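Q: Protein A?
A:
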Amino acid sequence: MKKYYEVILPTAKRPTYFEATHQEEYTPWQRVVVDSARGRELGTISSLPPLWSPTPPPRPDTLTSVVNKEATDSILQVATPQIILQAKERELEAVQALKLARERVQAYQLPMRLLGAFINLDHNRIVFEFCADKRIDFRALVRDLAARLKMRVELRQMGPRDRAILLGGRGICGRQLCCAIWLQDFSSVSVKMAKNQGLSLNPHKVSGACGRLMCCLKFEQASYDNPVPDP
């Protein structure tokens, strides 16, 4: 049996599990360095207890979208003050790189919107997240940015729901978006659920910030499938 801790990463948007090699002990909210598909990253141990499992738990799409066969998916060490400072420097550098990338997108007249950028601790990979209405040939842009930034450049297209997770916001209920603060995966949601719940089928009434059917339709459906009988 191997021990896994749930780690909050800036790139994953949702917590994910990393193996504690040699069975080390970590405490909630402790800052650690992990070896992920994007290289070395700074993460934070969540408040959940460690998970004992013979096989690795499933990986979020944000990590499996990048293939790095050398990644161990493990916690490397507790983050030192120097490493935390280095991570801050990477964040500031990513902001400047994002500004440059947006200028180059305009120069190439590409119909895409850059949402964010991330540089790993190894300083050899930068990931840009973007949204677009259709497929885009950005090979020339990648070569341009790689030559200017002197590191490997990756562009990852975000779907409507991923974009909502990244940008955040509030739903029609007035609360923060479920997908941005706690929802771990997306269950299938159908118009039939809105009909069963007696809701208006106006798209503006049953759609969330992402433009898709609201996830809360799925949460409420169980009450309609198994109503509580009157006393």
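Q: Protein B?
A:
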Amino acid sequence: MSAYEALAFSYDALTQDIPYEQMLSYMEALLQRHGRQPETVLDLACGTGSMSVLMAQKGYRVLGADLSEDMLAMAFEKAAELEENRPYFICQPMEGLELPYAVDLIVCCLDSLNYVTDPNVCRKALRRCYEALAPGGVLIFDINSAEKLKSLDGQVFLDEDEDTYCVWRAEFDRAENICYYGMDIFQREDEVWLRSFEEHLEYAYTVEELTDYLRRAGFETVEIYGDRSFDAPKAGEQRIYFYAQKE
């Protein structure tokens, strides 16, 4: 089963600890530090639309894009609850991004870029982001650091709520530079528990690689920060943020 096909319907319940509001506050602070005041936003790899809806509630004009139709179905339901300024969602891959209009800001949250496991495709995706931005536009994204992904090798994790039980195991393949997550998902349907399996893959990009890809895409301003920090990443940093600006 492909990534997020079964997990889509339980994703929000299993990730209630994700601090979306804090993440948005941090990204807005980054924008303020650079004198940017975006109005139009693309939430790239938007998933179930939590960030898209939050940004729409704050007055941004939001597009959400994701490759998973199942995740987008959840996002559409969530956005339908808004009385006004609802996000508009499209099903597109990052490397094939085509927007109806240029945007002031692209955000790509929760290590979504790590899921692009072919560096050539990653380069194409970042170039598409550059082309989708208006002059002066900004791309902000975060990644799981290579150090973090390598450290996950052999670890087992458990996530659960009343209706879903998810056990996932991580293995890091050093030859491929990819972390594999095998997920056994048990979901309650009335009195029956249904089992499914998904495999998620994340590529361990280095800061140097992504900085080079961004500059080759056309971005002149590229800055790297630690996890929701205004300082450079420290040794052992688990999550790293990138700020790239189109001149």
